[in-house]
UniProtKB/TrEMBL annotation:
CDD domains: IPT. This is IPT/TIG domain-containing protein. It comes from the Bacteria. Keywords: Membrane, Transmembrane, Transmembrane helix. Residues 239-252 have a biased composition (Low complexity). Residues 186-259 form the IPT/TIG domain. GO terms for biological process: carbohydrate metabolic process. The chain crosses the membrane at residues 16-35, 73-94, 106-128.
Amino acid sequence: MADSEVGREYARTRDIVIVFAVLLVLTALLVIVLVEAWPPAPRPAPDGRAPAAAAKTVHLFGWSPAVSRDTCLFLVVMAAGALGAVTHVLRSFYWYIGNRALRRSWLMMYLTLPIVGALFGLIVYLVVRGGLTSPLGGADDVNPYGVAAIAALVGQFSRETAEKFRAVFATLLAPAQRGRDHAIPPKVSAIDPDNGPPGTAVTIRGDGLDGATSVRFGAARAAVIDATDTLVRTTLPAGATTAPPVVNTPAGSAVSPEPFTVD
């Protein structure tokens, strides 16, 4: 089946400006939510007993609800997770723009990744609070700085977090029965650019490339900078020779149908 051409073209200047503006506005909104929802430090009761959780009035864009400390923590971890994802998005965004290799198909990923980061931050927080890894006490015992830092890192490295969860729970749960189409064999369909000197940023497109470990250019092996199911990003290593690039993945190797010409 022929590869779809939808989103293959490069992003236009208008697309870049719109997405960048949306990311800046989203970053500002997330910072406001994080600051406004930050829970106050627990205050001990007058009789010296354990501090009681007090409600806090959160002011968000004309809405001022009184929320509990637990609700504040939920908002904090989701905002921190989304901010971590935005950090990853902005770093990838300027890299592709600087190398003039930004495709339109990536723009939707940039806009949805903050949502993924927020959800991952919330899931990890629930796992920790649930005592599956390290049990915590009540809401008053939770350090908001700690959970916000964890959520931000989880949002920034959401793909690695998903892989870690899969590795951990694969030992606890029965593996799903493999179907005929359970795993897509790796396949390379295009390389961009297809020529250049050592140090050139190379983007390899195809299917089943998630988890790629390295790319071989002749006898030289290059490290993977970023990998998704349909894309691998790497840099042409020193010692590379003109040959079809070979992408190595846990599911096998995929050879490019076209050679990369080393200048």
